[in-house]
Amino acid sequence: MRNVFVTGATGLLGNNLVRELVAHGYAVKGLVRSRAKGEQQFGDVPEVELVEGDMADVDAFAASLRGCDTVFHTAAFFRDNYKGGSHWQALEQINVTGTRRLLEQAYLAGIRRFIHTSSIAVLDGAPGTSIDETCLRAEADADDYYRSKILADRVVTEFLDACPDMHACMVLPGWMWGPGDIGPTSSGQLVNDVVHGKLPGLIPGSFSVVDARDVALAHIAAATQGRSGERYLAAGRHMTMAELVPIVGHLAGVRTPARHLPLPLLFCLAAVQEMYARLTGKPILLSLATLRLLVREKDRTRFNHSKSEHALGLSFRALELTIADTVAWYRDHGWFEQQGAPTRTRK
User: Fold this and answer.
1) How far is the C-alpha of 171 from the C-alpha of 226, rounded, in Å?
2) Rounded to an integer, what distance in angstroms lies between the CA atom of residue 98 and that of residue 58?
3) Edge-to-edge strand order for the sheet containing 167-173?
4) d(Cα 32, Cα 239) in Å, to the nearest integer?
5) CA separation for the pair 246, 244 (Å, rounded)
């Protein structure tokens, strides 16, 4: 592996993967939907060759795949799916059809190594139990985003059946946090909402929280050490929102709410936030789809990483370090000041 192509390069995972690859000495092409955003993200990484394109039209950038030997496919339609409304057409076009076309064009370009960013969304288990890579979720028990990731994984495995000389495997991240989240994703949005006092209370739900930099390292290890056709978990540490929010507040130096919001109130708040998102186009922390997901998946976030630990040497840095680095990145890049709300220092 010498010359690599990374989709979703400006994303939370993508940008950290690009930085790790450059640090490891690889030549990197990064797919970006906006060159300006790519230059903003990688102004300090001049080694990256930016390729402007969109997973909705893989053929338009397919020529840029030539000369590469490995594809890291991190791009996906995700964030907008949880802003309310139906997004199946975009989910299918980008996450499913886009993955298929990328595999086909990569193969035609002579690429024989493909690392696909899957998700813990493709796994399921009973509440409180340990879930591993064999606990696959039934398509009937999936919301639209989960279904799109299940189908994308199926695209990869079916392609391997048809073209066994392609080496492809899947990495399954949990809820990613870390620096460089210019989106922001839901984790970055939570940090900003906590800092600006926009969190009215604690919501139910549990999560598997992971550093995007550790997920990036898992991708590189999967490319160099993984077995074709295999799934590798990189889900991170199980915790509840009641455990997570105080850590964010402590590291950001702000007070955080302690009260738990009842579900009926949360559904009302989510409906109002969706209306706000439709009117303003601004990101929100809580939508009806997000709330339904939190209720359904509560305590289904305990994952067994023994396979990834043994096969890839996967390990996770301390969660407090991850959150501290996330908070520091937003502070250093002026996010807390530019949104106009002063932080409230803890006493």
Assistant:
1) 10
2) 7
3) 49-52, 27-32, 3-7, 70-73, 113-117, 167-173, 231-234
4) 33
5) 6
> Whole-angstrom Cα distance, residue 275 to residue 267?
13
Chain position carrying tokens 């989240």: 181
Q: Please give the Cα distance from 307 to 292 (Å, whole number).
A: 30
With b for 16 or more beta-carbon neighbours within 10 A and e for fewer, the 218-240 pattern comes to bbbbbbeebeeebbbbbbbbbbb
**Cα separations in angstroms, 226 against 171, 190, 219, 327:** 10, 33, 9, 33
From residue 27, how far is each of 19, 48, 65, 149 by CA, in Å?
Answer: 11, 7, 13, 28
Closest listed residue to residue 173, CA positions, set 211, 143, 144? 211
**Cα 81 to Cα 144, 165, 258, distances in angstroms:** 8, 35, 29
Q: What is the CATH number of domain 3-183+209-237+301-317?
A: 3.40.50.720
Distances (CA, A) of 220 to 8, 216, 217, 282: 16, 7, 5, 34
pLDDT band of residue 79 (cuts 50, 70, 90) is: low
Give the model confidence (pLDDT) of 118-139 as tens digits: 999 999 998 889 999 999 999 9
Tokens 């990197």 label which residue? Answer: 28
Confidence of residue 7 (pLDDT cuts 50, 70, 90): very high
Determine the Cα–Cα distance for residues 309 and 313; give it in Å rounded to an integer. 5
- Calpha distance 206→241 (Å, rounded): 6
For strand 237-240 and strand 206-211, is the pairing parallel, antiparallel, or unpaired? antiparallel
Tokens of 201: 């209370």
